[in-house]
Amino acid sequence: MDDSQQLTPLQLDLLRELGNIGAGNATSSLSMMLQDRKLEMVVPEVAVLSLPETTTLIGGPEALVAGIYIAVSGDMDGHMAFLMPVESAKELVQAILGQQEPIEFGEMECSVLEEVGNIVITSYLNALSAMTGLVIMPSVPGLAIDMAAAIWSSILAGAAIIDDYITVIKTDFASEGKRIAGHIMLIPGEAGFEQFFKILLGTDRG
């Protein structure tokens, strides 16, 4: 993923730190759910991409993906989503349930996947809160399994998009030689990341 000039190198470094902490927290939490399988974190990548590029990143508009998304309120508002290729989602849920046979998404599997997404997203929110001291409250997560274009359009319709770029943290995991791919999408509200950067850069002492 190519870095965008929408953010300075220092700001991108801060988002990478957030990515590392958030992914580390998510790995620890998800590992507790797995049935005797080790889960490892792949070093996250951060980029700021245009809206069309985000769809391409997750496999193209017709790719089947699982999306878990929440609204964020409190000292910082916006939306977050965790998007995974369907095969990665199946692999992770299969490991958590300890099943040997390939799974289909029934009520139980969807419930597990929703909890996975909630854990991953809140891991990033908790990291963000710890880094800044901001009070950040997530909504109840929503889950959709559909083509990427349909899910992404639904998420964007509920978010206040103030520009044409989205911050993406590529969050991959590995388990027993299998790679489990995922992407965290950060969609800040009207204030953007301004308060986040002010606090971390020491320019907001109020």
Distance between the termini: 36 Å
Give the low-pLDDT segments: 1-5
Radius of gyration equals 16 Å
- The number of distinct β-strands equals 10
Our count of domains comes out at 1
The SSE order reads HEEHEEHHEEHEEEEH
How would you describe this structure to a colleague?
Helices cover 42% and strands 26% of the residues. Strands 2, 3, 4, 5, 6, 7 and 10 form a seven-stranded antiparallel sheet that branches. Strands 1-8-9 form a three-stranded antiparallel sheet, with helices on one face. The termini are far apart. It has helices spanning 9-31, 51-57, 86-97, 107-132, 148-158, 194-200, and strands spanning 40-41, 45-50, 64-74, 78-85, 136-138, 142-147, 165-170, 173-175, 178-180, 183-188. It is α+β, with helices and mostly antiparallel strands and 206 residues long. The longest helix is centred in the middle third of the chain and has 26 residues, at 107-132. 33% of the residues are buried. It has a single domain (9-200), classed as 3-Layer(aba) Sandwich (Chemotaxis protein chec), CATH 3.40.1550. Residues 1-5 have low confidence and may be disordered. It contains six helices and ten strands, in the order H-E-E-H-E-E-H-H-E-E-H-E-E-E-E-H.
Furnish the topology, listing elements before pairings:
Elements (H helix, E strand, L loop, with lengths): L8 H23 L8 E2 L3 E6 H7 L6 E11 L3 E8 H12 L9 H26 L3 E3 L3 E6 H11 L6 E6 L2 E3 L2 E3 L2 E6 L5 H7 L6
Antiparallel strand pairs: 1-8, 2-7, 3-4, 3-5, 3-6, 4-10, 7-10, 8-9
Helix pairs in contact: 1-4, 3-4
